[in-house]
Amino acid sequence: MGAKGKVELQDNLKLWYYPPQPSPLYHQAPSPDRFFAHPLLMWMPYKLWKVKLVCPNPSCGGTQLTGAGLHKRARRVLDVDRIYTMVTETLTCAKCKASHVSWSQAVLQQLDLAHRSEFRVIMTQKYACDVRVIRLLRERGLGNSPTRVLKQLRENHTEEWLQRVSRYTTECMGFLQGPGMLPVTFPEPPQLDVVPSCKWLLSVYSQDILARLEDIKAHITSTYGSILKMDSTKKITKKLAGTAKRTALWLTSVGNQHGQILISVLTAQEGAGLDRMASDLVKRYEKAGVDPPVALYVDCGCCAEAAETTKLQARFSGWPQLLVRLDIWHFMRRLALGCTTDAHQLYPLYMSPMSACIFEWDAADLALLREAKAQQLQAQGLSSTDVDRHLTREELALHCRRRTRGVTTTVKLLEELFDVLMGSRGNDSLGVPLFDQERMEHIWRVQRKHVKCIQDPLGVALYTKTGELTKGGVRLPVFRCARGSTSLESFHLHLNRFIPGSSANSLNFQVYLLEGLHRWNQDRRVAALATEKSPLCCYTGDLLHSVKKNYERLFGRKLAPEFCPPARYTGELIGLQYLFRQTGQALQDMNPDSEETARLVEEHDAVVDEEDEGFSELSADPTVLDMEVSPGSSCTVAPSTSSTVAPSSSSTVAPNTSSMLSEAGDTSNETMAVDDQNVPGYQHVDRLAEYLVGLREQTSLCLTNLQADCITELWQRLDDRDKQRVVYAARHQDRLLSGRFRTPKKPSKTPGVESTTRCVLGASSAPAQWPDCCRLVETIFIRLCGLHSAPKRKGKGAESRWSLILRDYRKIRDLVVGNARVRGEQRYS
After folding, report:
1. CA separation (Å) from 585 to 512, 573, 576, 577?
2. Are 315 and 275 in contact (CB under 8 A)?
3. Could you tell me the pTM of the whole model?
4. How many alpha carbons lie under 13 Å from residue 289 in its C-beta half-sphere?
5. Short-list 45, 50, 39, 48, CA closest to 13
6. DSSP-derived 3-state class of residue 295
7. Which residues belong to any copy of the DUF6729 domain (predicted)?
8. pLDDT for 540-557, tens place per residue?
9. In this structure, which of 12, 255, 388, 780 has its CB flanked by the most CB atoms within 10 Å?
């Protein structure tokens, strides 16, 4: 209290104030105040440190801010085991009369790093969170999902609260014991503070990344390599939600020989859609003065016919000496497609010799490993006569180098392997052949030209020695291989875990992706710089750089020799920025203090699973097989599928969607209807068929979102019987009995085409004799038959009635099947 009886700030202010602890002994009934008091953070940099703060308004010309007392609002901050209170000061500008709160970004950015680090609170519109909580979410590894962190916080808060309640009630119980004690009323302790949801934790996590976004981008764009790998995946694009949902088809990444990622972008298409990414990489190398890479490993587009330049080489035309090589595992997978099944007994015995036909081990490395293994077996009391049986694929890949055998030798050995397994020696115990001979011959004819694409580049060191291990008294070198794109396959496997939950809007998607890339590269920086691993584990570049600079000047040695400060971010497009440049959309404001960012971050659109989101181990090189293949080993080959999603656009001619939606939701006056076989529910089929037939005159090539929602609503009204997929009879015959020369008149490899044709041709004459198919398809054809009662024109070249019907039906089918919004929720027949 001041001289005038008002509350005033003391001169000797402190940053933290801690409440007094409960007394050891109580002679009167205790109050819960001391047992449940909270610490106080007084964030007043202007009063505490006398720093000079200027008005952020450019028109004020650097006018200094002055103190205007305490801010009227105190904030409650979530900590790892309790809630503490934070107050701040209000600063005003004498020129523009604007007020600023000391915890705003405009004020925090004017402080030096040492003082700014004292403010460890992340602010949101309603709550505040201590940075120690967010540190539990930063590493996207096993056991730190938002759900697990939330459960741990609730447990910590509950246990801390119960300990305080126990101490308070124990002290109160002392005043209830003994004769002659007067009745005492004790105040109840305050209720346990509610911990916010895990979705709110994710929103705060996003705010933390946004505050370090420029530093993260600078680290990513400061990565280089001499051997590059490029690969694409569709897994991560499924998590994109909001307005950008289904706009990205591929995520393409480029890595180096150390496993670091140079760039990772989302694209609406492959091929020409990657031209900007390639040109940005070439410019990055030129601006930094770094030697261009010597080799690029890909899974397709490695070579062209004759001496023409491939599209990939034209895309990287700034590096004319770049050698494009095919990933050997993808080449082996192509040759494995000639097998009848990967469950064949001889399948593993086919893949292992195929690897031996392509690679040969370094004789010196293999001899040293055999010697070490023999010494190890003797020390264990085992026989060392057959050392190769005890060598594992992990030991071979770790301590031995390999090289390709050359084009001529590889082709010769592969053809000998095919000849041996193509005959009776390729049959299993039941007589099933390993190869489909016709398909295998075709695959080898096509893939033979790629044998030269898998050869090691001449004069390029593909192995790097990263250390040594002692086995059996022998020092063995440890190698890291730069061949192939296996490291990118592993990165894409982990990339799906960087984005928590099953979906995220564009802003959250971008910040999660950039943070995951940054931490992935930092974990592999030690291997890139060939230095000893530091005990420091920090991913905040500006903090580590500031401490390193001061530490070196004061004490004369480097604190973290492996740390390399990044160059300035040059504006390269990463992640969703690249996609939005192609689609013409705009990425939301990345300013953490803007209202738009706060609103988007707190939308909580990420759906968090209840299970931990852990990483699996890095996948080993699949081309390294055991010295002796076990009969139970197998290798799965699964070709990937792809789909193309057409963007939605408005149509000029469309059914009355709004009225259909209102009618679909109104079931009060609905009348039941049956078909000619007395099956109920036909009124729902008729309404959906009427709406779909109305789409036949639509001029646009895709459905709008409103039309897709209407179709979805009408489909949900159908009975379960009408939702079943049409099952056509098998068309295979061991012996042909019809047609001239006992051959089908119109052969077709697509099941169900003949059945559909018979269904259409018999529509006008005998609709009751149609094959057993979905009532929706029947109703659509009946309506189209009524609309096309006669051809539109006569004479030579006139369209027949059935061609008009089929044209409209195919258009309706393409509109429905080609819409990802509809196809994602139903499976139409």
Report:
1. 20, 14, 10, 9
2. yes
3. 0.64
4. 1
5. 48
6. strand
7. 3-210
8. 666 666 676 676 777 777
9. 255
